[in-house]
Amino acid sequence: MATINRALIIAPNWIGDALMAQPFFTLLKTRYPRLRLDAIAPRWVAPVLERMPEIETVYLTDFARRKLQLWRRWQTAQRLRAAKYAAAYILPNSAKSAVIPWFAGIGLRIGYHGEHRHGLLNSRHPNPCKKERPPMVRRYAALAYAPGAPLPDPLPAPRLEIAFDEQTQVLARFSLEAQAPLIVFCPGAEYGPAKRWPAEHFAMLAQRIAQAFPTTCIVALGSSKDAPLAQAIAERAPRVRNLCGHTSLDEACALIAYASAVISNDSGLMHIAAALRRPLLALYGSSDPRHTPPLSNTARVQWLQLECSPCFARECPLGHLNCLRELRPEQVFESLHDMLR
């Protein structure tokens, strides 16, 4: 590693995972200060990586999910050959994620022993089953060292910075008053319904916020897929402004950076709020905050830890979603009220 001065990161396909990989980037840069790190990332993840000081260049991809698209990956690899990367770190577990560095002729290809990757990787870390894996941030951080090597404790935390001028410009763009406190709801979760707190609970929480803090603005952020869910919240609580699908990821980051508090499901926006050090209530259902927690001392986790959770399912296998339905708005508001006092 001492002679390597340029490396390529094959980034995760999820925003939250990309943020949990940032401590790994930091460790690499700390160990090898002259190492230049570039990354390949999907378009929906790239804006987060572009805000990380450890990453120099981000190459955008738009590969279809669950598709091999071997020819397009070969074309991408040929464009990377001129950079003469000495090493590649492949963070996803799939075989297709390891194809590009192999096609590009990158000599050292590092990652976890995953899906049929014997020939594609030549430095493999053991890959235990999901229940035995360490927290995601430690799993990524281990790739900065030889397999089995001890990790520093504590690890660096993910951190994003957004200039105050950018925040105020985005507030003005969406006609939000800079003087008014801003509460951000993140009601979506790309993974599936088993990670989404019910719309009626968000609405009831909004009503309580409006009663206790009447000057507060409440906005819902997310992708266009989250817009119907946010609309259902706004219909029950008209004080909520539905911006799902109306902001770019950069704009959503700027609004989160300005927020007095963020209430979010376990999602990419939750991890962004944590990396921006905003007061955060993170709502967990089918997933496990011990594995993918918000890495911030300004975050509080709300998780009932029922006998049936975490199940890691996209939809509740029992059909009741009690892990989130029984997480009452009153309970969440009490924690929020403590944060805002």
UniProtKB/TrEMBL annotation:
Biological process (GO) annotations held by this record are:
lipopolysaccharide core region biosynthetic process
Tell me if Ribonucleoprotein is a UniProt keyword of this record.
Answer: no
> What is catalysed by this protein?
an L-alpha-D-Hep-(1->5)-[alpha-Kdo-(2->4)]-alpha-Kdo-(2->6)-lipid A + ADP-L-glycero-beta-D-manno-heptose = an L-alpha-D-Hep-(1->3)-L-alpha-D-Hep-(1->5)-[alpha-Kdo-(2->4)]-alpha-Kdo-(2->6)-lipid A + ADP + H(+)
InterPro entries, sorted? Glyco_trans_9, LPS_LOS_Heptosyltrfase, RfaF
Q: What is its EC number?
A: 2.4.99.24
Q: What class of enzyme is it?
A: transferase
Pfam families cross-referenced by the UniProt entry: Glyco_transf_9
GO cellular component terms given for this protein: cytosol
Q: Which GO terms describe its molecular function?
A: ADP-heptose-lipopolysaccharide heptosyltransferase activity
Keywords, sorted A to Z:
Glycosyltransferase, Transferase
The UniProt entry's sequence similarity note says:
Belongs to the glycosyltransferase 9 family.
- The name under which this protein is listed is lipopolysaccharide heptosyltransferase II
Q: Which organism is it from?
A: Candidatus Glomeribacter gigasporarum BEG34
